[in-house]
Hints:
- 2 copies of one chain form a homodimer.
- Chain A has 452 residues and is α/β, with parallel strands linked by helices.
- Chain A contains 18 helices and 14 strands.
- In chain A, strand 11 and strand 12 (388-392) form a beta hairpin.
Amino acid sequence: MDEIRRRLAARSLVAGEKLPSVRAFARTMGVSPSTVVEAYDRLAAEGLIRSRPGSGFYAAAGTAPPLALAEIAPRAERDIDPLWVSRQSLDAHPDTLRPGCGWLPADWMPNEAVRRALRKLARADDAVLSDYGGTRGSLPLRQHLARQFAAEGIAAGAEQILLTGSGTQALDLLCRFFLQPGDTVLLDDPCYFNFQALLRAHRVRIVSVPHTPSGPDPAAFAAAVAAHRPRLYVTNSAIHNPTGATLSPQTAHRVLTLAAAQDMVIVEDGIFADFEPEPSPRLAALDGLDGVVRIGSFSKTLSASVRCGYIAARPDWIDGLVDLQVATHFGSASPVAAGIVHAALSDGSYRKHMSALRARLARRQKQTIAALGALDITPWTLPRGGFALWCRLPDGADATELARHALRDGVLLAPGNVFSVARTAPDMMRVNVAQMEDKVIAVLKASLASRR
Amino acid sequence: MDEIRRRLAARSLVAGEKLPSVRAFARTMGVSPSTVVEAYDRLAAEGLIRSRPGSGFYAAAGTAPPLALAEIAPRAERDIDPLWVSRQSLDAHPDTLRPGCGWLPADWMPNEAVRRALRKLARADDAVLSDYGGTRGSLPLRQHLARQFAAEGIAAGAEQILLTGSGTQALDLLCRFFLQPGDTVLLDDPCYFNFQALLRAHRVRIVSVPHTPSGPDPAAFAAAVAAHRPRLYVTNSAIHNPTGATLSPQTAHRVLTLAAAQDMVIVEDGIFADFEPEPSPRLAALDGLDGVVRIGSFSKTLSASVRCGYIAARPDWIDGLVDLQVATHFGSASPVAAGIVHAALSDGSYRKHMSALRARLARRQKQTIAALGALDITPWTLPRGGFALWCRLPDGADATELARHALRDGVLLAPGNVFSVARTAPDMMRVNVAQMEDKVIAVLKASLASRR
């Protein structure tokens, strides 16, 4: 009974769907068929399932328990579950060291620019402070983004840009727009772990392609597209999360050609774009925002507290997305949030801050590589920028076990398999070079040693 | 071909579902069967549908066009479509008069408190300004809400409260949590129009119950619950939108008893609670947050620009909702937004502002009733507070036609059927007393006269 309830909560069994036959389920659970018959009868008495004589048992409509995302992942692996890492990172005690988290420490951020922006907003018109704002969001910020896109080679007018409540919400809106339950979505392996959690909430099938230092493996990509006909491909451009890989022009062209042939939409998340010394090849630029949608946010470079994201896409898609965002959020990004973001980005200090930050991160990257090298922990590739290093542990050490051990010592790690759809990264971890401190190295050393 | 494409975009035809038979569809469309055969063959050639020999045609997987919410509504009635009114209200030219819109004019809002809050935030810790914050959102704001709920008779600790990006997003999260496509949801008729748009996006069936001045009609409510077994009932408490009705204790008790018997969850949206002179009966208070979820936001009383909403619910539900919000929004409400809201609510001026606002609205309500009375436009009931009046037009005048006419004169009205699931309010409209100006009365007069 518990197992069927779990499947209903995870929506792996949906209303109207047939339950496994008594015999098959008895085999699966290692119990006798009469036990299954009794369990099914009781579930039917509770109204959760219905029996159709001569046909079997079916999940009843309108009685599904609340959706439990956690139930969708295998229970035994709860500690390498993407949601677990997200919740740990967000709710960690302030004293926890977080080399596994995906953002910069608070004192690395351009807080003075944000403070000036808040004071500027305090003098804004009543309407900016109190009204919902237009359905696409702040025009000045969209115009700013349009200019920034132009510098990356993406021609998108302000009317082709939709502001959203966050980068994650931008992707969520696109999933609602393009997907239905049961569709297939292609991800990189490894990829940003919350892509998996988000796609679970949309109840789609996830297929992944091994990532190389120059983008997705082209042959595997072609094979996956042909075999699974995915509706979407979601990827990080600029500095790939977690690997730090840079898309090569050849791979970009190959990916676009394959996507176009199969009518597969590409969502390119450029959230790390400002960390690049100069723009790398962009799918959205090569494609001209035809079958590629560009999303992003300001959480990594400006503030994760002031939530604001964006979508740049074809005008007809933007129009449909506006309807969806009105229905599900009533309006676009907060005008106050967009106002703060625009004021801070336009602040004379922002460009200088980013340039100093890139230099600081480059130094930290070098130091971190040296410190990890002393523990035989080696980077998979050398990222052109950003704060993440995708690292291999020495001789088959298990990153999940290491993470469990380190957490007891107040250090939050991000074990490789959290990022890997196919669970092919048991001995990898993502390290945030800006969150490295001497104590982290000491805890890593002790954790690795305890294993031997 | 267009009609099948439309059904696919509206998701009224989903992957794997059988298309109407050739004969039935020919009858529906008033064309010959051979025309339908040709259309189906062409759609099959495009890959949108597949033929299964001997069985018929089926919608193909992975080829659905992007979800078009607008297509879900009947095309001919686009101007009484909820999304149309929302988009018009949000994107209206600043000179448009908006008695049809659902919020106060900018200069009626407590903007000075928001300005002081912004300046206070400019002095906050770096972490508040730059980090994502915890998964439930700002603790001080949740503690403030817990105290406010206690005053309404709802016992909810801060850990039972989840902050969200907006009130709409709170409901959206609950829909994801409780519903699957095909479930049934119960609404009031009339009700806040965006409930319909939001539920469309979740592809659920909507059933409605006529509203009375003391809440939903008890007999119709009982019949609807028994006949349709809805999973959710979504309603506005305090001051009902659009009618201004107040739930009576008897009706509240009846509704709770019926809901409990059928395992139906109630979502009570208390967004207008602060407009009440003193708290009216609350479902969440009577029920003790067992099968009732309380949601709300600060958009109507503080600022619609600083987006922040909340959910108060059972601890086990909050836990599942946290996972869902991490997956779909990565974190809770913006800490900066929650900080502004908390600072403004705690500002000594807020309570005085609300008390003055209630008095000002009461005066405006009286004036508006008099001015509309001269045009034979009469309120359906006398609301205890708030800014909405649900009004009947004289001798069967059509509100949709009136709205179309008035828009040409720069006045945005909210025709009754936008709020009515069953389209039973053709001669009703919602009037925002705070947005009434002499020109609105003049335009209404001219529009009514032109009809004669």
